[in-house]
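Input chain follows. Return structure tokens only.
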Amino acid sequence: MIDFTLGRKCTLENYSLLCFVFSSQSLHFIGGLIMAFTTATGYGNLPNGNFSPVIYSKKVQLAFRKSTVCGDITNSDYFGEIASQGDTVKIIKEPEISVSQYARGTNVTAQDLEDEDFSLTIDKANYFAFKMDDIEEAHSHVNFMDLATNRAAYRLADQHDQEVLGYMSGYKQSSLHSQADALNTTVNGTKAVSTAGSNELLSSMQLHKDDFGNITTSSAGTHSIPLAARLPGATALPTATASPAMVVARMARLLDQQQVDKQGRWIVVDPVFMEILADEDSRFMNADFGESGGLRNGLTINNFHGFRVYSSSNLPSLGTGPGTSGTANQLTNFGVIVAGHDSAVATAEQINKTETYRDPDSFADIVRGMHLYGRKILRPEAIVTARYNAA
């Protein structure tokens, strides 16, 4: 880059001086680019504008990052037990014990203990790879290697969060970097409970429209729950919708009936559900109801019906999503929320390989890495889901 005003090359050291000189000559900075004033009619000096160089800012606009929640709501007890894709971790279940009535003189018969197990299979692996030419690296005004590595780490974490949230909600992705949008029919390893469906969840723990007797619309019972805020002053339950608080309370009741510990419960909702919940009672936006110090990994409310409440954009979304309004016939456009206990789902992950090596076909460094993980529903009785749409 040449400083035409000073008549010498402009280095990083006199970059600020260059900017000052140009700005003092009535040139403006616009979006990191030095632009001259418009030219008066008939003025012909330096007609091509080559006296005004383009200067690229050393500040880089970073893309927004979504909060990931899986690390907060799953257990990582098996984190250190995987080494490569295809590994299987066998998990032994607690044996059931029978209690028998005893009377004086009864012959006591000892029962045989069962050693039932199920497996967690490490069957997920994602990778990134990019290269940086030596010339580009030497002359670039920003550290593209560092920027790309940072973005790669985020993309791996975001994909992991989308896939795991979809799995634990009973759905799967049609493509990477997208919300789960199809029913999951593939069991990871073996089922933790034999009565669970192909999505590894219990049918009794999956809420639909017919689980709310106040809704009398004619659509099928398996359709999504039409959701609307129950505003202050209401004296009766609605007949076409359920409220967010009703749905969360029902999820809490189902966990109570499964004897799930109250300590360690969580619920993950999407922004549409969160908005309707806030409309129902503005106190949910009050800091008194949240965690001191602000948001952390999507945590928005620290205790609502016994749940830590997380908001995430990575939950399953089918069709046009939960924002599609309607009180009936919603089986294609809806969202899914999920609640459970910290012990319900296990995740085991690691960066299996990260390496930098020389490109054999050019003068460049290649950086690549692989993220290896598995996830398993350990306690389907401790997970409850609800499909819904905004009414």
